[in-house]
TrEMBL record:
Organism from which the protein derives: Parabacteroides faecis
Protein name stated in the entry: Transposase/invertase (TIGR01784 family)
One matching Pfam family: PDDEXK_2
PANTHER family noted in UniProt: PD-(D_E)XK NUCLEASE FAMILY TRANSPOSASE
Top-level division of the source organism's lineage: Bacteria
């Protein structure tokens, strides 16, 4: 699960898939480059400009025709919760049911799909903390701790950047005011008293 976009996100996904492909290589002269298909499935809590639907499949294709190039061995599947807007009634396929549950499981106690398949029932049971085994609960708590630490770090970084931006913006505004005063012939000492800048800073303008 990827909770927020990052620089080179697509490159990172491709890099890990290529590593899985390369690990299939065998030593010796008899290997004929027989490769098993490798699929990357990415669950995203955001959307990107490249996405035009909640599901985006990326494959190797002929640029001129857009058709699949050779036998598909590498495929990236991006599932964006942010772009998934199907209602319960509009979900027809098992995948659509899964994405609906994952996105909305916090909104209801009994999933509308819970009685359809054992897999859906198990998913809802896992979401219920009281139904978890000791091992499942420990894994859940550890993942929750990691997510909370990541989120707290992100919020702090954003707040700090905003605070620095405000300070920088205010300082730049004061310099512009000082520069205008200076053009009007007002002496540096008076400008310093009005703007809070030092006389040295004003003389450098």
């Amino acid at each position: 699960m990827q909770n927020c976009p990052q620089r080179y996100f697509f490159n990172r996904g491709l890099y890990y898939l290529c590593r899985m492909v390369s690990r299939q290589g065998k030593t010796g002269r008899d290997w004929q480059y027989g490769l098993l298909p490798v699929y990357g499935i990415y669950l995203l809590n955001f959307s990107l400009p490249e996405f035009h639907n909640w599901r985006t499949d990326v494959i190797l294709a002929d640029e001129a025709t857009g058709k699949t190039f050779g036998e598909v061995k590498l495929k990236q599947i991006y599932l964006s919760f942010d772009l998934f807007n199907l209602t319960q009634e509009e979900c027809k396929t098992p995948l659509e049911n899964w994405i609906y549950i994952l996105k909305n499981m916090n909104l209801f106690d009994m999933s509308p799909f819970k009685e359809k398949e054992d897999a859906f029932r198990r998913l809802l049971d896992v979401a219920n903390l009281s139904a978890m085994t000791d091992h499942e609960r420990a894994v859940y708590e550890e993942n929750l701790k990691i997510y909370r630490d990541w989120r707290a770090t992100l919020i702090y970084a954003v707040e700090e950047a905003e605070e620095k931006g405000l300070k920088k913006g205010k300082a730049e505004e004061q310099r512009l005011i000082a520069a205008n005063f200076k053009k009007q012939g007002i002496n540096s000492e008076t400008i310093a008293q009005c703007t809070g800048l030092s006389v040295e800073e004003i003389d450098e303008l």
